[in-house]
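Weekly modeling sync, notes
Attendees: S.R. (lead), two postdocs, one rotation student

Agenda item 3: backlog of single-chain predictions. S.R. asked that every request posted to the team notebook include the full sequence so nobody has to chase files. The rotation student volunteered to paste the first one in as an example of the format we agreed on. Action items at the bottom.

Example entry:
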Amino acid sequence: MVRNNESNVPWFSWLLPNTYAVDALRDFILFHPIAPDWLGSLALVALFAGLAVIGGLGFTARELQRAR
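Predicted structure, as returned to the notebook:
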C-alpha cells in the first residue's frame, strides 16, 4: 500500500496519477467504505487529467498548425 509505505515510494512515482488513486480505489472495491482521503485523491487525479487534456489539446493545435 502506498499509504503505509510513502517513504519507500521512489520520487518519480509521485509524478503518476496511479500513485494517488490506487489506495482509494482498492479500499472502495474491496471493503466498500469511502476512504477518508478520497476527496484529496480525486482532486489530484482530476488535476492530472486536466493537465493531460490541456497538453493534448496544445499538442494537437500545434500539429494542426504545422499541417497547413
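Discussion: group reviewed the output briefly. The chain is about 65% helix and 0% strand.
Action items: rotation student to repeat for the remaining queue; S.R. to check formatting next week.
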